[in-house]
């Protein structure tokens, strides 16, 4: 059995989220109980997609929010990924940002959850 690090995203439409992650970002479906829940996998990441009818969508305690939390996907060539995804109709939050560790850009899934595409700096 493969070990995965799991992250839960609350989504409005489980099938739309599955289609987004599998169609645009290279995930595969692990299990699906749509419209309540599905999980998709990319490498060691298992992304739990919890719809309104799932137990994972229960209210978060008051005062807590996701802030800038996001999944972080490493890509070999950021500009090529941006071009490919724009051609597929995906929109981005802002423009690419360059820092000491590499370049990144943010996009959102259909429910508004953040995804970061990251190209490490050449070493």
Automatic annotation (TrEMBL):
Alphabetical keyword list: Metal-binding
Protein name, UniProt field: Glyoxalase
Residues in VOC domain copies: 3-120
GO molecular function: metal ion binding; methylmalonyl-CoA epimerase activity
Classification via PROSITE patterns: VOC
Domain of life (superkingdom): Bacteria
BP-aspect Gene Ontology terms: L-methylmalonyl-CoA metabolic process
Span of the signal peptide: none
UniProt-listed Pfam families: Glyoxalase
Keyword Metal-binding attributed: yes
Species in which this protein is naturally found: Amycolatopsis methanolica 239
PANTHER family in the record: METHYLMALONYL-COA EPIMERASE, RING-CLEAVING DIOXYGENASE-RELATED
Record carries keyword Metal-binding: yes
């Amino acid at each position: 059995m493969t070990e995965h690090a799991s992250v839960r995203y609350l989504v409005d439409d489980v099938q739309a989220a599955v289609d987004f992650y599998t169609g645009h970002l290279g995930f595969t479906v692990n299990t699906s109980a749509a419209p309540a829940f599905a999980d998709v996998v990319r490498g060691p990441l298992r992304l739990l997609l919890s719809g309104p009818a799932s137990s994972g969508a229960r209210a978060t305690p008051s005062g807590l929010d996701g802030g800038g939390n996001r999944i972080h996907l490493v890509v070999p060539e950021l500009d090529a990924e941006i071009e490919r995804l724009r051609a597929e109709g995906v929109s981005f939050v802002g423009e690419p940002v360059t820092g000491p560790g590499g370049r990144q850009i943010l996009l959102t899934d259909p429910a508004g959850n953040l995804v970061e595409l990251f190209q490490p700096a050449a070493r």
